[in-house]
Each structure stands twice: as C-alpha cells, then as structure tokens.
Structure to design on (164 residues):
C-alpha cells in the first residue's frame, strides 16, 4: 500500500501529529487484539488462572447498591473495578464474587452516602467475619477499597483510601 500523501498546505507539525496518532491507534489496536487472544487461549485451559486473567481487565461503572441490606439482596459485582454511583441508604449493599486465590476486587463508593455494606458470595467470608456474614468494614462516601481473596473462601481488605 502506498504511503498516504498529505496536502502540501498542511503544516509539518500537523502531519507529524496525525502520523503519531495513527501509530498510537495501531499500537493500541494490536494490544487489544493480543489481550483478546491471550484471554481466549487462557480460557481454553479452564482453571482458576483463566478466571483471574479474564477478570483482571474488567470494569463496571454506574452500579446501584442493593436496597434490602441483606446478602441475598446485595448487588453482585462481576468485575475487578467497580464504581457504585447509586447508593440510596446507609447500609445498602453489594456482594463480592466467589473467592478465587489471588482475585482482587476494587470498589469505589462514588456517592455522597456513607456506609456501603460489602457481603461475601454465598459460602465465603470477609476477614474475621463468619461465613456469609457482612464485612465489618463499610465503604464510606468517596472511598475506594480493595479486597483480595487469600484462599477459596476468604477475602481481606488490602487497601482503602479516600479519592481526591
């Protein structure tokens, strides 16, 4: 394919910026294709590592917390990065996915309402709480909290900070 000729009236800086943008687009496109190929190959293995890789590149925005204030009614999280934008009442809740060793889930309570409760998946536990019990630490308004699964049933908070 012949190189694209730009109009002679285009300043050299515009041509260079356009070429840089095209190159950046190609690199990003190739990276996305590579990640998709890697994900497909790893998912063929069918083990916990496949779950972790697929999960590590996921994000969900505009999550609404469950209003029943119970494990059964909590909104189930399905991504690594989760942004709660609708949280109507203190103690409304969300539920972590099933624990897999090494899985990390980041939750941002991006609302003005404090005390977002976090429940484990059925059969799991959060820190020292009993199996299926709500976590002791609630996520305040404007706070991001990271949970990490340390085994097949237990989640621990590994980071918690206020967003700027």
């Amino acid at each position: 394919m012949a190189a694209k000729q730009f109009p002679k009236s285009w300043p050299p800086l515009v041509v260079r910026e356009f070429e840089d943008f095209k190159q950046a687009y190609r690199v990003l496109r190739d990276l996305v294709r590579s990640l998709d190929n890697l994900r497909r190959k790893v998912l063929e293995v069918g083990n916990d590592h496949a779950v972790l890789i697929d999960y590590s590149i996921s994000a969900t925005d505009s999550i609404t917390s469950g209003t029943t204030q119970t494990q059964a009614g909590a909104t189930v999280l399905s991504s690594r990065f989760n942004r709660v934008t609708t949280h109507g009442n203190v103690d409304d809740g969300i539920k972590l996915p099933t624990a897999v060793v090494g899985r990390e889930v980041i939750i941002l309570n991006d609302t003005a309402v404090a005390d977002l409760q976090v429940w484990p998946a059925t059969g799991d536990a959060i820190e020292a709480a009993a199996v299926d019990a709500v976590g002791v630490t609630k996520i305040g308004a404007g706070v991001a909290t990271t949970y990490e699964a340390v085994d097949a049933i237990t989640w621990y908070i590994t980071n918690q900070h206020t967003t700027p």
About this structure: The radius of gyration is 21 Å. Residues 12-45 form one domain. The first helix runs from residue 12 to 45.
